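Q: Protein A?
A:
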Amino acid sequence: MVVLSDSFPTGLECGTLNANVQPGSSVAIVGAGPVGIAAMLTAKLYSPYQIVVIDKDEKRLELAQKFGADKIINVQSFDAMEQLDSVVDGRGFDSVIEAVGASNTFDLCQKLVGPGGSLANIGVHGKQATLDLDKLWDRNINTVTISTLLKLFQSGRLSPSLVTHRK
């Protein structure tokens, strides 16, 4: 009951749904504890093409693989970033889920998310973590409504007349 009332709702609602996991997407989950594994299992329900689980604990990584991770990567491996980049051809992941709650893992997640991707933070942070907006602004994180907004503009339901200043 604890797993169904805590780990799975957090993994699904705060992780999978907030990270906008979609069919055919690439997913990176940093943290292979109970909540990270729950995020992985619920993400699988949305048919992504690749789920990579990242941790430093080999036993947790083995469990993630047993439960169906497509790839596991030990973050302490000397070539961890190269392995991660090779999974997505250097483009970054569509969905990234932070399930540890540490500033260094949050920093890693910011490096992993690709243009137009989503980053969901489900780890409980005991200390401050920095959101590097200076590095994320041009990746259009969570701008999943652009296509809808374009259609609304083309149909005349939205007007660009909200511009108030012109040079």
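Q: Protein B?
A:
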Amino acid sequence: MIPEVTVGVDGSAEGLAAAEWAAREAVRRGVALRIVHAWLWQPLDVPVAQDRDVQAKYAHGVLREAETHVAGLCPDLAITSEVVQDTAVAALLREAEASEMLVLGSRGHGAFLGFLLGSCGQEVIAAATRPVVSVRARERQTRQLTGSEVVVGQSGTPYSDAVLGFAFEAAALRGAAVRAVRTWSLPPIYAYGPGSLRLADEAGGLEPFEQKALAEALAPWRERFPDVQVIEQVEMGSAGQVLLSSLSDAQLLVVGRRERRGRVGTRIGSVAHAALHHAPCPVAVVPHN
């Protein structure tokens, strides 16, 4: 495992919140923290006065502010910082590849802030080969240190081990419990009324099947992390909605992501999209492809 947590900052409150979260996570893991700011000098083809030296000074000032802030919070933490001269997406993807995880600031309920403009945040999360954690500014004084659970969505795919492994490790580092959430829905043939539900029960029941599948998926992780309390939650409904309704005591939400490309570009999946835009706690998106 690569021994480093990397955070992207831009001078915003969201970027500073991400730096705080990343610093504390680096301390938990006993690794170094790397702070980066992406800046590429590209004079606009418009009649606007620009000064390269002024912009470069601002870029380095962003790093100094973040480094000074987290050093005050975690004085024994090894910290490095760098202005990365590249486009935002290219710089962040390269940084993610060289780190345990990448941490970014997010406003939520809309586009990502910082040097992630428009669809850039989605592109980074969709293409990164390592976990990306999204943090909001208002978490600096609340979800940063509170919450007794790490909530994880268990999808039932053969790739969910990467997601469960991240969640269990995060919970062990925090002394938190894992709330593993698995959702299910009725097959179309049953989705017509109470009579159809009775037929499902007479056939043995769909929910017991899902409960068994979740227990089997969790078994090796319970064995590997025997001190982590596990709460199993199986519920019928939309995966995104059920996860969001399960975060009342969450310090972190962990979801999986497969890279998908459609006609409108890179996609992150509906569950990750809902989590990133609406979860009240930090969200870790773990790639599993």
